[in-house]
Amino acid sequence: MLEKLNNLDSRWMYLALVIVLVIPIIKPIGMSISVNKDLTQRMYDFIENLPPDSLIMFDIASSSSSDTEITPMIYAVMEHMAKKGHKLLVAGQWESGLAYWSPKIDERAKEYGWKYGVDYVNIGFKAGGTATWRAIGQDFWKGAVGVDINGTPFEELPLMARIKKIDPETIDLIVIYESGSPGMETWITYFPTVPLVKGSVAAEISSSVRYIPTGQLKGLIPGMRGAAEYEKLVGRPGIATQLMDAQSMSHILVILLIALGNVAYFGAKKKSAEAR
Amino acid sequence: MKRTVPVIITTVTATIVFLSIVLFKTDAAGWPGQFDRMRQFMAAVMMFMGMANMTRVHGSAIRKRDRNWMFSVWLLVIMFAYAIFGMAVGNKNATYRWIYDAFIPPINSTMYAMVAFYLTSASYKAFRAKTLDAALMMACAVWVMLSNVPVGDMLWSSESWLGGMAGVRDWIVSVPNSAVSRGIAVGTFLGGFATQLRVFLGIERRHLGQG
Amino acid sequence: MTPELQTWIGVIATLGIFSFLIKENPFYRFFEYTVIGLSAAHTVVMTWDNYTKPFWNNGIMKGEYYLLIPGAIAILYYFRYAPAKYQWLYRYPLALIMGYDIGYSLAYDPRPFMVQIRGTFEGLKDLNSFIYLAIFFGVVVYFIFTFGNKSKGVEKTRNIARYAMMMYFGVAFGNTVQGRFSLLLGRLLFLLGDWLGLVKLG
């Protein structure tokens, strides 16, 4: 029996996983969650305390593969911004993610009644790595080659009139949605004076939290759980909240498998020791 | 000419760029700004490198009739067709966008999502508390997994003693985890910095390849 | 080209990729190669539209002719894929870019790490901050004395660091599980919601 358990075919586990996840997706119970005071709450408070009409820049540094983690974060932060009346500047260090999320941002902006060019602008993907961001930082219009994602000249977008540089006087906060490199290091290294917060995929939480005590990061949304927390804070539950029960089930299954795997392993080991 | 001159170019360029940052103001009109501008345009010119590399790798697979060579032919055909079409009509074109939405996000997300299955089987087959080290790692992993989901809050509420399950997790994340991450980062930084100095001094030349 | 057809392609692609879990098959390979090809092309199109074309129109054509010199050097980079005889030419732009990047790194990279190190020593007031410092110190010692030091003090410090690192890897694993399952849930939500209509999307 223990032998059999020890050599269990992985595909049975895959099947168990799918069954365990499908049920709570279709019928969630809606268990409540607490808010992480060290990370999510800090980020919420920072945006909450900005004066109205502040300019927040989104940097999309992720590909569409992190959709379920990043999308609810973007929506929740936009909801917060809409409530506070902030302006939005969208940019991207990664081309694939920017292409994916731009229409979603447009859709939400429409819902809030934001006017393109006045309340928000999307400058699109700018290649060239850190050299480009430094150039944009020194002279926004020239560095960003003078056009937005649609090829519209900055002269025709009223919001761009107030954006000439990347400095704390111009940009009140950078929110980076990141799942890898290039990412927040660009801002921490070359623009240390501009406040920075991060919507982080879960795999990056461990290596990002060290920037919180030094103030290099003012706050962080930790993965989909963090997104659900932010949804709770802004009072608009979305996909992250909806999937939290299924997430519970998946973690419980993994913990059970770890326990079962250990029982099978140590049981088989004990048995073979007795046989000898 | 083939190796020595590039090494000299690296050292001289690094020296000039470094000194320009130290000596001049880093604004768009200053020298560092001009260097950034030049580097920006170099990136613009080099935009086809990814496709060139794909062509080489898959072209070679086709020539050698590798196991998946038919797929390599398909890859090159759709890559060139999609790129030429996109450059001609622009990325906002409805058909271009339609193809993007239909294929790239679903396939990309699914490839990353597949890791969840492998993590599940690895948890069963590889996560064994054979030593104190492994047990410690396992305990922290289990604790973080539980406290990252609502069930953790249900088992030990964050309103209660020590901030509950999430409170203990926050301590692990913000004290030992953060300190280790900082230590590793410093180690990595020192290693990276040393490598850069070696390239700067011309001792490290592997990036220039053979020949 | 209806949205329904788009959803169906997404569904077939999703199931095609997942079919790899059962075993390696041509269906999976087809979608894998498709996305690699399309992504490479997409990067080029986005760069062309948002960067290279406007750079040419708003930079070079407006008088920044001096940029044609680095531009010409950058073209040499394509010799990486030329016949062996000419391949060495790609080293010139590479050397220039390396030099440029190193110059910047030497000037800027130390600062964020100095802030990190300073932060570790600042505000040593409670037990947690001393634990933090001890672990940080231990990990740095662990990496510096990887080989060759057998002194008892170093060994003990390395041991403490190792336990702390195990905790770090445990946290990283736990968080990675959360992340990867989030993505899987996204795909299941797509199949159950967008396709089958069994779930109302939030």
Please characterize this protein's 3D structure.
The complex is a heterotrimer of chains A (276), B (211) and C (202). Chain A has 276 residues and is α/β, with parallel strands linked by helices. Chain A folds into two domains: 2-28 and 244-275; 40-237, 3-Layer(aba) Sandwich (Rossmann fold). Chain A has helices at residues 2-6, 10-26, 40-48, 67-84, 95-112, 129-138, 140-143, 184-190, 205-208, 223-234, 239-275; strands spanning 55-61, 87-92, 120-125, 173-178, 196-200, 220-222. Chain A has a six-stranded parallel β-sheet, with helices on both faces. In chain A, α4 runs parallel beside α5 (95-112). Chain A is elongated and about 80 Å long. Chain B folds into two domains: 1-89, no CATH class; 127-211, no CATH class. Chain B starts with a helix and ends in an 11-residue tail after the last helix. Chain B is extended and about 65 Å long. Chain C has helices at 3-18, 26-58, 68-75, 91-108, 110-121, 127-144, 152-195. Chain C is mostly helical. The radius of gyration of chain C is 27 Å and the shape is extended. At the B-C interface, α1, α2, α3, α4 and α5 of B face α1, α2, α3, α4 and α5 of C.
What is the element layout, followed by pairings?
The complex is a heterotrimer of chains A (276), B (211) and C (202).
Chain A: H1 2-6, H2 10-26, H3 40-48, E1 55-61, H4 67-84, E2 87-92, H5 95-112, E3 120-125, H6 129-138, H7 140-143, E4 173-178, H8 184-190, E5 196-200, H9 205-208, E6 220-222, H10 223-234, H11 239-275
Parallel strand pairs in A: 1-2, 1-4, 2-3, 4-5, 5-6
Helix pairs in contact in A: 2-11, 4-5, 4-10, 10-11
Chain B: H1 4-23, H2 31-45, H3 49-63, H4 69-89, H5 94-125, H6 132-147, H7 150-155, H8 164-200
Chain C: H1 3-18, H2 26-58, H3 68-75, H4 91-108, H5 110-121, H6 127-144, H7 152-195
User: How many domains of chain B, as an integer?
Assistant: 2
Low-confidence stretches of chain B: none
What integer is the average pLDDT of chain B?
92
**What is the level 1 CATH name of the largest domain in chain A?**
Alpha Beta
Task: Report the count of strand segments of chain B.
Answer: 0
Characterize the largest beta sheet of chain A: strand count, sense, and whether it forms a barrel: 6 strands, parallel
In short:
The complex is a heterotrimer of chains A (276), B (211) and C (202). Chain A is α/β, with parallel strands linked by helices. Chain A has 11 helices and 6 strands.
